[in-house]
């Protein structure tokens, strides 16, 4: 397949996730939740998920407002995380962060459709858009260590413009 056709396919998948995001909405039985925003471009995400006693993500939902990259990435992240243990989720978050920074990762297939966001590395201003949902999940998982499962934790975090693009 020619490179331009492959790029077009990637764009179509990203646009589909942005226009018809998976796992979008509110999760009534959430055990954990977090809200984060990216003040650089105005993206805001509310992320809710169910983490069972074995620390496995059983369900996940997101809402908020964001650009197409932010929304598509949240949709792709949600798809990738259901059924993952906390350790697996943290590993995928790290892999995704490296991918969108232009680093080569070993197991690209583990990211599912999110692997198609590798091109974001060419646009440094969009890295924060792509990583917002992933950072939110990582922080929520870290935050849940200080809360009791079954009680929703709420944390509002602003990414700072001076932060390293993770």
TrEMBL record:
Range of residues in the leader sequence: none
GO biological process, one term: iron-sulfur cluster assembly
Domain NIF system FeS cluster assembly NifU N-terminal: 10-129
Parts of the chain that traverse the membrane: none
Domain of life according to the entry: Bacteria
Pfam families (UniProt xref): NifU_N
Entry GO MF terms: iron ion binding; iron-sulfur cluster binding
Family: Belongs to the NifU family.
Protein name per the record: SUF system NifU family Fe-S cluster assembly protein
Organism: Vagococcus entomophilus
């Amino acid at each position: 397949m020619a490179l331009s056709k492959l790029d077009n396919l990637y764009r179509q998948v990203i646009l589909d996730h942005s226009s018809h995001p998976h796992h979008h909405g509110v999760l009534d039985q959430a055990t954990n939740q977090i809200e984060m925003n990216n003040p650089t471009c105005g993206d805001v995400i509310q992320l809710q998920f169910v983490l069972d006693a074995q620390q496995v993500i059983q369900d996940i939902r997101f809402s908020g407002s964001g650009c197409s990259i932010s929304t598509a990435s949240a949709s792709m992240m949600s798809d990738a995380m259901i059924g993952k243990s906390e350790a697996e989720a943290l590993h995928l978050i790290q892999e995704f962060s490296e991918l969108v920074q232009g680093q080569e990762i070993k197991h690209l297939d583990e990211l599912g459709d999110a692997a198609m966001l590798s091109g974001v590395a060419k646009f440094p201003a969009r890295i924060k858009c792509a990583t917002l949902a992933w950072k939110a999940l990582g922080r929520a998982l870290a935050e849940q260590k200080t809360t009791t499962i079954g009680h929703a934790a709420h944390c509002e975090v602003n990414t700072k413009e001076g932060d390293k693009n993770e």
